[in-house]
What does this fold into?
Amino acid sequence: MPAPHRRLRPLAVLAAAVALAVTGCAAAVPAAPAVPPPDPVTWTGCGPGLECGTLEVPQEYTDPDGPRVALAVMRHRATDPQRRIGTLFFNPGGPGVAATDTLRAMPATPGSAGTFGPEVLARFDVVAMDPRGVGASSAVRCRTDAERATAAASTAADPAVPGGAPLPTLLAAEARALAEGCATHRTPAFLASLSTDNVARDLDRLRTALGEETITYYGISYGTVVGPMYATLFPDRVRQMVLDAPVDTTLWTGDPLEFLDEVAVASERTLGAWFDTCRTDGAAVCPFGAGDPAAAFDALVAGLERRPAPARVVEGLAPAGVVDGAMLLETARGAAGERTLWPVLTTTLATAQQGDGTLAHLLHRNLTVSPFGVPTATQEQHTAVRCADWNTPADVGAHTAAAERAVEHAPRIGTRAAYSALACAVWPAPNTDRVTAPLTGAGAPPTLVVGGRLDPVTPHAWAERTADTLDRAVLLTREGVGHGSYGTDPCVDAAVEATLLDTTLPAAGTVCTPPRATTRPGAVPGG
It folds into this structure.
């Protein structure tokens, strides 16, 4: 990746970018009416070092006098106010992850991706906003608690079948039922308003309410869609931006079926990396599989489908239950994508092989970050946002063809990806004015893009494409496995914090290579 640069672009793209910056809409959409300035946020203490408030925004910016949405916001004041730089906004991803929950939990999550270091917290007011439809900002709900609990405990999914069930069942009992449930709990007009361009406009309303001329921004995963959207709509209001584990925004808005295919391949690669390391380290270090962990894993998944393993209650963390092959596959997909969980994955598979599903059941219930459908409240919000953003084919045949490709490209994980956009094909709230132009951020300062070489959700190729799509960007690569890099690697941390604090980006082509991991597939930490 070259140094921060500005390339000549086709006139049509430049015209679209100008229209976006002026109107905040796609080029074909007329300018929205002016919206009066928001009232300042009234802050109240809500925890150690934290203040909470509410920001009211229009449900649709084209109708500023229409329905309103109340957004939950939280602020952690700069701990060294004499050296305060300004306000740092962040989005922790999902979509569906509540930023306020993330900020509240941050002191307890050192070493986790997206956790700000002490110097950042000293010099910025860090502000979290739950996006509309997420968390405490009128969260989308599509199932009742009882329905969700039933779905979470179900062993009906077949890991050998694309989507886990025959297509008629997926259409009727999954996609349509979910879509209708969402429309029952929230109006179609509200669901249509959940697009990322509205989230970016909400961020700018918050900037105004805080009295800031510009913002500093850090986004991870889906937060890397929000960031480029904001920089494209409001380039002159960006002080500095960092995008960690970036999404390919061209796929996000334009080709969701290819998007899901590439996610499945990324997850398959990280699971394959665990198999390779386990086999290379040998049975003395990684005892699962007797030298062929991939074959042992496939046999275990098939065996648990025939006879699920019982799981004991884990007090305060998980009830008793059973684990079948589909649950184990999803558990392994999630755990393989985080290098620190590899020893736990080894133990999980070994105990499941012995007929004890307790650890697998615990992980399955707690590894909730998934690009594919899982029965959690977070996933309902995830689905609602992406249906507002995505250009999803209504033709079920297109989904069937994509499912076949996904299984071909990722034989294990492809079945999980298959048909996971089906709810958006029957979504009851079409969004007719979403932004579809390239998110170039033209006019904003150079952006730091951070991509992990083996990211299980956002493949490294997306980081490369993001750096190419943005008008000015520098790509930093972290070697290794994991979703998100800042907060997990000292080399990345130094580069990100120099960018946020001093607007000093690393040299083009910088690669951070951590020392060889001391945690091996079978070495349980502390054991």
Residues 1-30, 523-527 have pLDDT under 50 and may be disordered. The two ends are 42 Å apart (CA to CA). Residues 256-281 form the longest helix (26 residues). The chain has 20 helices and twelve strands.
